[in-house]
Amino acid sequence: MDRRTFLKTGVALAAVGAVAKPYIARAQASGPIKIGMMAPLTGVVAAGGREMVDGFNMYWDEHGGEMAGRKVEIIVEDDGANPDMALQKARRLVEQAGVSMLFGNLLANTGLAVANYVKGNGMPYFIPIIAADDLTQRNRIKNVVRVAGYTGSQFPRPLADWCLKQGYKKAATISQDYTFGQEQCGGFCQTFTEGGGQIVSQFWHPLNTSDFSPYLGQLANLGVDVIFAMETGADATRFMQQYSNFGLKGQIPLVGAMNMTDQSVIRTMGSEAEGIIVAAHFAEGSPDPVTQKFVAAHVKKFNKLPSLYGFSMYSGAMWVDEAAKTIKGNVEDRDTLLSAVSKTELTGSPLGQTVKLDAFGNPIYDVHIRKVVKNADGKLWNAPIATYPQVSQFWKYNPETYMKQPPYSRDFQGIKKS
Amino acid sequence: MSTDAMPRLALAAVLLGALAFALVPLILPTYQVSILTEVLIYAVLAMSVDVLAGYTGRTPLCLGAVFGVSTYVTVYYSSTFGGSPYVGMALGVLAATVIAALFALLAIRTSGVYFLLLTLALGMIVWGICLRWTSITGGENGIRGNVRPAELAAHLPFYYVVFVAVAVVTFVMWRFVHSPFGLTLRGIRDSESRMRALGYNVSLHMFIAFTVAGLFSGIAGALYAMFNDFVSPSTVALTQSVEGLLMAITGGIGTLFGSFIGALAIIGLENAVSLYTERWQTVLGVAFIVIMIFAPEGILGGIKTLLARKRG
């Protein structure tokens, strides 16, 4: 090949490349949008995982299976409530199935494992359920966004403030001994003590505790005004039952983390759960018509009141859909998608309020203080009794100064020495 | 049949297998390459289980935990401590060996079901510590690592690094079990009292075998740290030990190379079946039952018996 032909070929190739490039991009953006959705369908939290998938699918069913005019193809994978397996499934979704985004996971450890994986390859990863504080704080990853989710310490803070307003001065906490519990207790303790309250004692018990009597005996004799409990799943059921059986119910007010009185727990319970107060963004018993419309649709479709899992995945799907509409469905361009998601203000949320993300990818909510009551059908649900507007994950702190304090753990609960 | 035909056939099979592991990744999509990497790593774990279960006659349920200790140390050193990943891996292997030596001191006094139970308990202790020692291990959440160096970030180069490492380890293990020392282990398996009567220090030999098995699981664990870049208590959990044992049994206990077949079968099946059904664990369970009924000596063991029967 002489110099001239070489130049000619080169120019021709470059021209083809320039012409073909936008064409390729367009070709890519016209097929279905593949979404990788991971949830624990086997293992200890399989029931919650199932509700996640249901909530997620419910949104797409309602919207004709389309995102911004493009068909949506959802690939559901079981993470087995196990981080190693979650990681493997995430790899498969990204590298083999070729998804444009990842959604889901329930347990913090699975979410953290996947987050570490997508940190390396930039895949957008949306986590409506994973509440680990640091994913949107100290160890923020740009492409991991907590659409429609919340951080562990976000809601216990307004609850602590509410407790102080009730005149409670002394509190004790009891919690499952793992990071999610430590973060929620930390949020409660820090706000409670900074507002002049006192934390008398803290109890940490292993996951899957069947007998709470040793803890309840001690709690009863502390002389506290209120007890903050953080329990999930079967532990939550057992704790509330035994709290009532030991006669503490009605004696010492019980407040707690929202997951303790989530529908997934209280659905099967009776009067022992009534009257417990927790703080959350979502309250299925809210009189807001938008919320009630969502609740009615969920009951119609699945014959049960929506849990946090279903609600969060539903809203998460809505969030990304709204964002995709503003960029004409070009979700393959990751940077555009991520910036669209972070700019989107969610107006149609079942919460009946506009929700937006803070600068760290975590939503700001009007937080309800909600109480477990019987509804008109005699079913237990959470009804709001007070509202704290615009609560961010940083409460009233400056984010920079806040993040200088260590993350919450068993050893650091942010308790202010008085 | 001539007596040296079998080894020649075996050698050919091993070379063919190695060749397959060397060439197949070139034509596979990247995700399958990562699965194959996992197969190689777990094969090492299964082989170290085989050293004890197949050659020494003691079935351990703690090598998964030893494997995980190495993973923890590697990830901890290179991320929380900020050190070089290679030093971290060396420290991981060292830690695994030390833990295995400690376990060995306790476990070699027992045999049979007591050995099984004791090693199970020891493994559970490791798991309990990893779960509860939150300030170091990150508890349930585990530690996010920074182990894999940038030059190995792509799947294919990393695969070949693992391939070479595993090839070397496999050769060393093969030499180990076929050495005179390895023969004494088989002697202990077949008759402990006779070996003692012959003047062998049975306890010492078992201690060494256990520690060496721990060393090899440690190597697998360190490679796994680099592969996953993440560690949590599920890596040291009982399921890890059981998985290693199942791979060794599926491939064929006491065959060493069977571990590769076992790892390939189990990890392959896990991935293939879970594509189609949530009930993949049920399918795996049924597969194990079928293997145990029709080839109790494992896949490779079954093939060997079949070949021997044909010729005999």
UniProtKB/TrEMBL annotation, chain A:
Domain of life assignment: Bacteria
Keywords noted in UniProt: Amino-acid transport, Signal, Transport
Residue span(s) of domain Leucine-binding protein: 32-374
Keyword Lipid metabolism: no
SUPFAM superfamilies assigned to the protein according to its UniProt record, in alphabetical order: Periplasmic binding protein-like I
GO biological process assignments: amino acid transport
Family: Belongs to the leucine-binding protein family.
Name by which UniProt lists this protein: Amino acid/amide ABC transporter substrate-binding protein (HAAT family)
Automatic annotation (TrEMBL), chain B:
CDD domains: TM_PBP1_LivM_like
Pfam families named in the record: BPD_transp_2
Alphabetized GO MF terms: branched-chain amino acid transmembrane transporter activity
Entry membrane topology: Multi-pass membrane protein
One Gene Ontology cellular component annotation held by this UniProt entry: plasma membrane
InterPro entries assigned to the protein according to its UniProt record, in alphabetical order: ABC_transp_permease, LivM-like
Transmembrane region(s): 32-53, 60-79, 85-106, 113-136, 156-177, 198-225, 245-269, 281-303
Localization annotation: Cell membrane
Principal subcellular localization: membrane
Annotated keywords: Cell membrane, Membrane, Transmembrane, Transmembrane helix
Superkingdom: Bacteria
Name this polypeptide is given: Branched-chain amino acid transport system permease protein
